[in-house]
Request: fold
Amino acid sequence: MYAQMVKSEATNDDPEKLAAFQARIDAGEKIEPKDWMPEGYRKTLIRQIGQHAHSEIVGQLPEGNWITRAPTLERKAILLAKVQDEAGHGLYLYCAAETLGVSRDDLTEQLLSGRMKYSSIFNYPTLNWADIGAVGWLVDGAAIMNQVPLQRTSFGPYSRAMIRICKEESFHQRQGYDLIRVMAQGSDEQRAMAQDALNRFWYPSLMMFGPSDKDSVHSTQSMAWKIKINTNDELRQKFVDQTVPQAHYLGLTIPDEGLVWNEAKGGWDFSEPDWSEFYEVLKGNGPCNTDRMEARQKAWADGQWFRDGLMAHANKAAARRKAAKVAAE
Amino acid sequence: MAPAMSDIMTPDAAELAKDAPGEGRAPLAEGTAEHDLFIGLARLGDNTLILGHRVSEWCGHSPVLEEDIALANMALDLIGQTQLWLGLAGEVEGAGRDADALAFRRDAWDFRNILLVERPNGDFGQTLMRQFLFDAWHAPMLTALEGSSDDRIADIARKAGKEVAYHIERSADLVIRLGDGTEESRARMQTALDTLWPYVGEMFIGDVTDARLASAGIMPAPESLRSAWDASVDQVLAEATLTRPESTFAHKGGRQGRHTEHMGHLLAPMQWLQRAYPGARW
Reply:
């Protein structure tokens, strides 16, 4: 999941309409763009889908950081294809958001001005080649935990985008695991890179699910609307339970001394991430926030002439077609 | 991996040595048919490798999401073609070097790409113009290679040709739209054309290796591709309202291994992991 702490909007709509809307959701019906929906539902979804889309776009950067240094042609191709898929996910998600009445340019502007967020995870650096494996294995792994249930989300276009995205994400996760496996089974230096990557990405990956939401009003509303399907804690537990045996298989150590198997719950007990660090990252104080935003702002500003040029040409071409049509008549 | 001492003492030492990179047959002698073929293939594979690398540098930084996707696609095609060309080059050489060994463990003077493809990306206009000038050569080159007397080359050319037909369509279209766009986009595209123009001539200048490959029907003579290139470039530039530079000056040397200063800087990050951790599997 690349959306964290999405505040759900209060709704002041007609109680009768609201009840009918809720009944549709409870019956498992999909809400389509032209259907009536509460303003709060619309706004919350725009925020959530927008944040998810922005995360895909900013998420190109930490992995893109290694494209020019990928060690083999095959690894380079795999990484390029993965980053390309992420741009594609951004595109589907912006399209899904557009069905709710917000434009992609509008959303982009909100990202670049800092009014909209992207996932905290992309503010962490990729420092060695094994990080590219760790990102696929842990970051995509954590994302999938949330995205698989979201295939059943109530908003049709979002649900359909998730179905496509999940297929690709699970492929990315397997590729990431394969990369870090080769590193973990490689030379001593490669093994050290793999362990270092796990050490740095473990807690930030746990943070991806957001803080415990047992007391959150927003979560309750979003869950009633089936915009959010599981609690943050449920998903975090599921992620840990899935990942610990994979790390053991690789012979890598999860950097948590508090990690113990809990027979009674049939899952692992684990230490909470440092939530003060999480809030600092959200405030802009993560290791890469400044660099990530600068990179996106630069790409957008440097590309202005290109987008304007294409628009001007499209207008000229349309005018010519119109003139030709008039002349023919 | 180089054999350990105990391995060398075993009767299988010769077998083990075959796996060691760069330790197979003696280097191919210059002027032999195999050497010519190796150079011809390296020229093809190094062009796609270096251009693919340059294009991949844009990943995540392009002017619009659709371009990020399209450029990654183009880079992927070029890297895929590199695997085929350099893979075959390694096979022809027979010294135990595969495509990765050729890409990541040769130094600049052994690369045979034209200088055009190693030019830095510049602004997005320069990247697009470089792509167009290259595609306008690459497409007819591959068409000619489909008729190669070497079936392995014809097969690769057929596969790559399908991809490149799309590359030229796309890059020509963007050159036209940006040339005939705003004042600024036109000025940027003209500057890109003027800047890159001295690097186009090299595509059409043959040497003795080319001549021997051409007479064996393996690869076309570089000079033979000029008229098709001129025709398609002139047509696109006219539609783009851009002016073809008059100069016929051509920087050259890349195809013989004499590169610009940019080449070393491109290879340094590209080859770093393989150089820093020799023998590692990735």
